[in-house]
Amino acid sequence: MKARGFSLTELLISTSIIVMLLIAVGAVIVQTLHVQIFHLSRAESSRTVSSLAERLSEEARTATAVFIPSIDVLGQPNGGSYGAHEVDFFRRLSAGGDAYVAYRFDAATQAVTRYEYEPSTGGVAISNSDLAASGVAGFSAEREAVSSSGIVAGTSDPLSVSINYGAPELVGGNDVIVVQVQGISLQGVPKSVTTIHLASHAAPTSLALLAPRTKPTPPPSTKTYPFIILRPGFPVTPPHGPMHGGGSGNPELLHWIAAEGTAQFLGAGDSAGGSWFELSSFYGSLTSGVYAFRDKDGSSITAIISCADGPCPVFRPLPVSAPGVTPGSLAFTQTP
Questions:
Q1: Is residue 32 a part of any domain in this protein?
Q2: I want to staple 196 with a disulfide (CB 3.0 to 4.6 A). Which of 169, 179, 269, 284 is the partner?
Q3: Can you tell me the distance from the alpha carbon of 147 to that of 157, in angstroms, rounded to the nearest whole number?
Q4: What is the pTM for the complete model shown?
Q5: Is the residue at 151 inside a domain?
Q6: Is there a contact between 287 and 312 (Cβ–Cβ < 8 Å)?
Q7: Domain residues for 265?
Q8: Residue at 100 is within a domain
Q9: Which of 229, 186, 72, 62 is nearest to 139 (CA)?
Q10: Are residues 178 and 292 in the same domain?
Q11: Residue 217: how many CB atoms within 10 A of its CB?
């Protein structure tokens, strides 16, 4: 007896069922792979932002100052509707010399590049560059006073401190640079924003006293220079010191004195170094404030300028000849 075979109709139905099952299984596999790739891409984006945040924080921990230049390393304006697209780090090396590092965001390539550079006439000289992060949708940096940052513990109203390091925009201190990094937006997932607070290692918020077990190093030596600032157009030299500006032959000479002030030079070691001539080679004009420079031996010197009756008028830091000034005092001319 012959076995009954399948009819054409039965074969078509069976084939259709198998095809539908294969399509369903294939759709499940494709969807699973899509979800896996989706999560891998999201994790990769998070790792990119996290890695960049770690690099920026590490740069700040070893920096003398963190600042935002008005012109980036490529000569473009460093600004925009959401803030600057570049943040720079300055290091004053203990062995002598300075080092500069910049992190610049390029919106076109969605990448952040790290540059090592040296300031030069008319721009900067880039010595090295490497990719710091890719897949970045947004990057912005803003300077924020420490008193308004709300991240300082132990005080409700910390004082802002600014330290100049030899260039108009190269200002350190305890201000905070706030950087916001935004990952690339993926389908169905909102953009993730990471906020990074950057402060240099030389950014004290208050005076701290340390008591080491070993003999402490001696404090910086200090030289103090009293001085007067003469108004523009000063025709003659004063016959007396700052407190005796006029003489019997010229009773109005006292009015040429615009301000009386004091300069403190703080240096390392047993004797304070630094001179007005060395200070003037770093700064063409001065007013009240704290200024950092180096002496002829390369040692770091800090100059603190203050005046008796308020902020000092802007003056040239080169002493002028003024016979009769109190011994130890100096005279400078006010900048017109």
A1: no
A2: 179
A3: 6
A4: 0.51
A5: yes
A6: yes
A7: 221-333
A8: yes
A9: 72
A10: no
A11: 9
Q: How many domains does the chain have?
A: 2
Whether 68 and 185 share a structural domain: yes
Question: Among residues 171, 153, 174, 155, which one has the least CA distance to residue 163?
Answer: 171
Token duo for residue 74: 């490529």
* Residue 174 exposed, middle or buried by CB count within 10 Å (0-12, 13-18, 19+): buried
Distance (Å, rounded) from C-alpha 310 to C-alpha 332? 17
Give the pLDDT confidence of 303-321 residue by residue, as tens digits.
889 998 888 999 988 888 7
Structure tokens at 92: 């004053």
Question: Hey, which residues does 176 pair with through a beta bridge?
Answer: 144
Q: What is the DSSP code string of 109-171?
A: TTEEEEEEEEEETTEEEEEEEEEEEESEEEEEEEEE-HHHH---SS-SSPPP-EEE-SSTT-E
The secondary structure of residue 196, as a DSSP letter, is: E
pLDDT category at 322 given cuts 50, 70, 90 is low
- Same domain flag for 132 and 73: yes
In a domain, 135, yes or no: yes
3-state secondary structure of 44: helix
